[in-house]
């Protein structure tokens, strides 16, 4: 029995209250796009292109190569690749034979990757050649049986490949940044694509209940662990996205694939949803404003999932006359708060819509979004997606809902909610409640009509003197100070076990730290216990590849004994 869903009244015209039950898989959706859009460009990688027909042929060759290496249904295959055509092929090739894709950030340290590889025990790893030696050097507990090296420069246009071989310093530097020849024996991607016969058409397809992806996340309970996402989870989230943006045209859209596929946001919005709708994916191995501007001139983008810093930089470029954004009809922002002023700037420059969404890896990842249309509400992350239930509960007793409008922990359920954490029943039990409810770990308020406003991460709340302090609330105030360019607020642990509210600041050029002035500024808006007791200036804040400030890394920037 679904929970009450008052938010469906805010849905854009044509958006259903629910989605039909999932009856197929990511592989079915991929092969449908190959059949229906075979001649269409599937990927544009810095100007190098593959059609959907090309993509299908390479998927079937790599799928057979993996089967020849002993990969069977349920076996894990690790991917450690930037966004590139080979990543798209590898993803669907693993799924085609019933394997489980394990996504990794190729820029992780050897220690970070080794812990994950020891956990999932992949039989084969398909990796960027620059990290082959790292993975081949793991001890036996983590090392896969086979490593397949991918030279991403092979997907570039021929003229670009030739330019990278020029005997000039800039060309050599660019080539070193994109490819490194492994020193250990590995299998070569190009040889497997060229020399392997295609997979037999009679090979059984996966079913919706099969596990499709293991996606590593810090989750809601601390250390990184692998969320188990089934085909049904990911397809359901894809169908929700398809319903949410009814104006998208199958086989005619161009998606900006600037978000990394090893992140759930990029995986679902581009690698899954983009391919299912027959879109052209404009791939970037890492975000580059100049490369994105060049791509926009070469192949105008119509749909953009991104994060606020990317929208801000593109808006600056558009105001400077460097790029025309009028082709971008729909833009989705996630992973961090979206400034309403940025929304106004973007929409005036593009003529399209920019709406905020909300999700987490454990929900495949999208849970809620602002309606595409008149009912969107800047400052809120939106309303639950079709087929999604949501409640706000007491974090100490999640069986009890809080009063309407009061802050509490958001819990959700729906077909996109994951199956648990890989080999972590303790963490699964702490995150999944009876009845299929997922604890998000986010403190939110919900309006009577269902709009969700995120207050903070539950685990990032600062406890000082018995009071809870929201880091985001303090950061919002400090960003209004004219001397502050950026800030992260954290709780520095005291010997007593209490936490000290501490602001780590990036000051504007030419400004000096004035602690008394900053405290006085905060006291105009904040209760005394929320005002930072310490201010620490730094040159830059540590951020993820998504541009999100990493508060746990911020704590490492504090001087020893900062809260003594």
From TrEMBL:
Domain AMP-dependent synthetase/ligase intervals: 30-422
MF-aspect GO terms: ligase activity, forming carbon-sulfur bonds
Stretch forming the signal peptide: none
Domain AMP-binding enzyme C-terminal: 473-548
Pfam (any one): AMP-binding
SUPFAM superfamilies: Acetyl-CoA synthetase-like
Protein name: AMP-binding protein
Species of provenance: Pseudoclavibacter caeni
